[in-house]
Amino acid sequence: MRSGNADVYENQIPGGQYTNLQFQSYSLGLGDQFENVKRKYSEANQLLGDIIKVTPSSKIVGDLAQFMVQNNLTAQQVLDRAEELSFPTSVIEFFCGAIGIPYGGFPEPLRTKIMRGQKIQTERAGTRMEPFDFDKLAEQLKEKFKRDFDEHDLLSAALYPKVFDEFEEFRKIYGPVDRLPTRMFFVGPKIAEEFPVDLETGKMLHIKTLAVGDLTKTGERAVFFEMNGQLRSILIRDKEATKSISFHPKALKGVKGSVGSPMPGELVTINVKEGDIVEKGQKLATLSAMKMEMSITAPIPGCIKKVHISSGMKVSGDDLLFDIE
């Protein structure tokens, strides 16, 4: 029987965030630990000062909760190890004052430990912003993506420039996926299932999946289908299967110079190279995972002995990223 969930009185997860947090947890491989994510949400909320939870502050609590579950951290361990942990970017920005100063101020000494000497904003960020030039943005986007954009697009690009660029790059590769039925996009069709795709007025495609071939040595499968009655086939890379083909070493537990990934994600930037001398807390790389970004920092001072990753590479939790000696 479906019903309301009374544990909201304990975890205080806003209704609009609940399903997003659950989907995000499953995408990060934490689906079977969602009950623990909800418990950690309560702990994360208290660590952040029991803040008022609305977008974007509720996301910050969720990011910290999932970070704690992924790294098997208690609230006390977060407090004790705050100076060496690589927190999600949203948590660091919160303590910077990037979204404002919460009622009652920031919790100490956690804020000081996490900031590690970084500059803190003491006034509302918007007071120093220049008026936004939407005409200039429209010209930049048109030049970059070779098409016109409406007001909704411009607002999206202004508020979320990185996400907007990623979405446009995705559309360039895969086409107008917004025309696909929702289930077909997220799950895919069953064998022998036919579904329509309404491209535009008077232009309808009827697609029917026929068969999926065996995995090749290169990690691809041939997919056979009919489009408007015509037989076609294409090669698709099986991303799940290729995970077992490649092996990435894991960070050594208990060895501080063995820097591992705090959670699954994609390496967006790498800020150091082999032979570089780094200080404790220095930024080594940026990891992105399901709307969550985090800076990977050096747990100890030393020399970068080996870099085990490259930009754009996907990693799992605890995958070895750097060796520092």
TrEMBL record:
Pfam families: Biotin_lipoyl, PYC_OADA
Ranges for domain Lipoyl-binding: 250-325
Keywords from the named record: Biotin
GO cellular component: cytoplasm
GO molecular function, one term: pyruvate carboxylase activity
Single biological process term from Gene Ontology: gluconeogenesis
Origin superkingdom: Eukaryota
Protein name per the record: SJCHGC04324 protein
